[in-house]
Amino acid sequence: MSEEKKLFKVTIDNIQVEVEAGTTILMAARKIGGDVVPPTMCYYSKLDKTGGYCRTCLVRVAAGSAADPRPMPKLVASCRTQVMDGMIVENITNPAVLEARKGVVEFLLLNHPLDCPVCDQAGECDLQDLSYEHGKEGTRYEFKRRTFERIDLGPYIQLHMTRCILCYRCVHTANQVAGQREHGVLDRGDHAQIATYIQKSLDSNMIGNVIDVCPVGALTDRTFRFKQRVWFTKPVDAHRDCPECSGRVRLWFRGDDVLRVTARKDQWGEVEEWICNTCRFDKKEKSDWTIEGPTRLDRHSVINAGHYVGVEKPKETFKEVMNGRDPKLLMDIHTISDVNQVDLHGIPGPATSATFNGNPTATGTNITDVKEGIGRNQHGTDSTNANTP
Ligand code: SF4
Ligand code: SF4
Ligand code: FES
Fold this sequence. Notes:
Keywords: 4Fe-4S, Iron, Iron-sulfur, Metal-binding. The chain is an alpha+beta fold.
């Protein structure tokens, strides 16, 4: 008779769960799900030896085990701490944990740029979510942030080292998935950076997966960069017969164009199946794929904005009661109004893109003055407006 596996009883935020010996606190919390699950920035369940770097998953162990119920003296990283039978863990029920997490977020953001408006990761960035949910409003850091030049890691990937949080996920992915690692974390402390010697390109056919595991916008897809904000794209699950990988991917559409191809991610934001570079970078035609259907995303995701699956629209009766007339004609005032005839550039005030001559040496106290190349604006409209440059 096979020996039954012993299960440990663990209580996390007053919810009890039974897990096998050897399970980490984080995975026990994931078994419960919901808000009890600590956030993670470096741990990745699909990769070995991850976790233990970022400290965002800190929790308090209020009782070590049934046999030794003393609390652990310090907060512990839940992704690296295994459960014991009778262990009691506090996550969101302990204000000290939340306070410590704020400190961790502040620390992660010490050198982070305010790039979100131009960053390709915005809208699906773990650091954005973490800062929003667990961060402070301000920072106490007063020093100059460290900056790096952008580096092309081969033809498909660009590294923005300024955004990197040194989670090591890409290093483990290159080691374990791509099978060859030509990059790593060089130097230590404030000088630590992800780099390749002599900027050697990463040419494994599975290396594109580093883009998906990167929790921030440090590793970006060069075939997608600046093409579109992710919330304007429509994710769809699709597959193809691929000799290199499972071929099961997520396509991101804008209209009928496939703007990017990524691996599918699970509810923890982790890749379900690794995909090859050919699927990711070379198959950008709709006809390359068999479409399975719209991706079901967490309803809180910003990517969900404007995408509704299975929604039944109410019957449109306007046209019916208008005897077949198109309802938009009701609002068509252009034929009877002069509103479009006004030349906005002719109105005294701040220069517009059509009138500003961009002469950087011109003098004046506002943009119109600069355009005119004269002193104070005689109309007075701009000079008294605090919002005018
Ligand atoms: S990596 Fe995330 S937090 Fe950083 S700039 Fe990009 S979107 Fe913003
Ligand atoms: S580049 Fe991205 S995945 Fe790699 S260490 Fe930096 S943040 Fe992590
Ligand atoms: S996720 Fe646990 S230390 Fe980073």
